[in-house]
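Suppose a classmate hands you a notebook page containing two proteins, each written out with its sequence and a corresponding row of structure tokens. How would you begin to make sense of it? This section walks through that situation. The first entry is reproduced here exactly as it would appear on such a page.
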Amino acid sequence: MATVAPQHRKRTPAHRAPRCWLWLAAALLLAACSPQRAIESLEVLQAIAAGPEAQDAADVGATDTQRRPYAFTVRGRAYRADLYLPGKSPLAALVLVPGAVRAGKDDRRFVAFARALTKGRFLVLVPEIATLRELRVGPGDITAIGDAVEHLAGLTEAPAVGLVAISYMGGPAVIAALEARARDLLRFVATVGGYYDIEAALTFFTTGYFREPGETAWRHAAPNPYGKWLFLRSNLTRVEAPRDRTALERIATLKLRDPAADIAPLAAALTPEGRAILDLMTNRDPERTPEMMSRLPSAVIQDLRRLDPAGTTLADLRAKLFAIHGRDDPVIPYSESMALAAAVGDDRARLALVDHLAHVDLTSPSLGDLLTLWRVVYEILELRDDMPAPRPGAMAAPS
């Protein structure tokens, strides 16, 4: 579960499709309860759709956002981070967590997204989670998210902030939001391309099969192999035999570089424990996933349980949830956000499915996609208006 490697699909930036945006703006201004909030929401959405290609474009106006290096410590745990300051005085604050990519918080797509959120007058804290740059994920991510939320809440006039998590980090973010120290600090949690059920996500990674909530028949889509080889790499430290760790690391590296790479010589050298992990990664039968997961090393199984929102009590979630997903997602199927929203409940969850998101890249959005996403942004800004602003001293906090 991770942010997919950079996409090579053709993007249609917002500033290249003026007619679509003109019609959208007119319709929203006529329908919106608050014209000012409608305009702000449109500005946020247009900046998101413009993407990293617009970072240096003068007509987008990205230069009014300041990105500052930042550092903080929570309970003895030290973090590096970036702090994004909007051009106008911030009205609220949120934590933004990237997915697993080698560039981490410096990924161009992610930087563009953080800048876009400042258009909604959010102070944005982006913590550096070092393991994500190494393409290794685990329960420690939950602690890091909770620490960032706790710290940022301390910089606001009252302890309340938002949380936005990308891709794989949606699962740990939801779990962090359930923990006692963060539960009362969060007004909203937004996930983009996140997951709900570890078993379902692994089934899709490896076989391409998935089900919508309540279905018994399987659906199928071609999965991006990035997800399963990231999973393999993430669990190397939990493998007991050194030779397995070496072989599996080599397999993951080869497959991340070339999905067609020949790994047969490396696979032949694995012990039964190492083979159990590789067998799951190469499985093609969705009905076999539960049994194959049960044969994983016990340390891997324990971590999977810790990272599984489906194993939590989501009735305890006090924040408003926004689950955003593309139906064309090749890494984590859209059914995961459907299941997550259903588990939280209609009164506290907002599901937003769009056709052209390609996991986390908004490519060639339709007018319907833009309208769906605009509504999400508008509702988030409604919550923002009742959230406390950052204290003035937060802007000058030492890095």
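The notebook's second entry, a different protein, reads as follows.
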Amino acid sequence: MTSAIVRTNPTSGTATTSSVRENFRFAADEINRLLRASTDKVESTGTNEISAQFGDVPTFSLVDGIRVLIQIATTTTSDYQTLNVNNTGNVPIKKSDNTDLAIGDLVAGGYYEFVYHSVNNYWLVLNLSAITSQDALLTTILGGLYPVGSLLTTTNSANPGDDDYFFSGITFGTWEAYAQGRTIVGIASDATLSSGGITSNVATFVTDAAHNLSVGSQVEIVSVTGVVSPVGTHYVTAIPTTTSFSFALVGTDEAFTNFTAASLAKNIAFDTAQEVGGVSSEAITLTKENLPEHTHRYMVSGSSTGGGGSTGGFLTRSPGSIVNGTIGTPGDTSGSQIGSQNGTTGQAFTANNLQPYITTYIWKRTV
């Protein structure tokens, strides 16, 4: 704003002339405007009833729009705070949007500019502490990054809910240890079935999109009808294409019916959120009962001089056939045998069942 003071006045007369008085009026108005925009900073006293004394302004009036710059001495501890400037009285403080302050909004050491609102008789603080604003911003950002239910994977053993974990001066969320000693697997969504049938005791289904099943998956079939009902749980034996799978099902060759949006193939192992499964031991001991049914053949050698004649050479027998050492005429015990006497195959052994791994800390935000 250009000064209204006329530098050449007075041009004549005495010190009581109107031009001199006019210049004083202009100067007073401009000084008042300057005080409203930038008054020397002073440090306050008090915590929630804040006082500030500007010694270089002997006459101070609560004029609408007047501004003061104050350094807060002590962080406020109440949501109701007042400001008393040059003994003009305790006037309530509001935020610049006319809302109430919160506990700790005015931080010790912070510089704040206040403007007086004469209509409502309160001080508006134009700039809250940069520290407080930053904390609120960072907390909001963390809330967006880690909403309740989120997982945090880290090599830091500290609880993310501890003070200063994310940023200095900030405490964020309540966390609990999660998936201790377990791997994390994505949930397998249900596959919608579009068609299917049995051929030679093999049931094959087609899905309307690529499924997440693999050979060995335990699958549950829902809402499909047929002469032989496929509804229930089965183990997948083949994946003909990315949108089909098969399993053993004894029945007449037929096409299944009643395929609707409710006709689903559910991967039982991974179809529920936070489902727990698998074997927790580091090693698995396999026994012969764990092996699929199969047949071994072995040779038995022997000879006989009995009535049946010599049978020198080798015979083959299947497991379970007990060889008594006699080949040829009954009663002849001259034979010898090579192989198992009882036909059992395989023996127990222990194998490490762990995939390659590296351990970390996993935390789940609960609040």
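A careful reader of the second entry would note: The first helix runs from residue 18 to 37.
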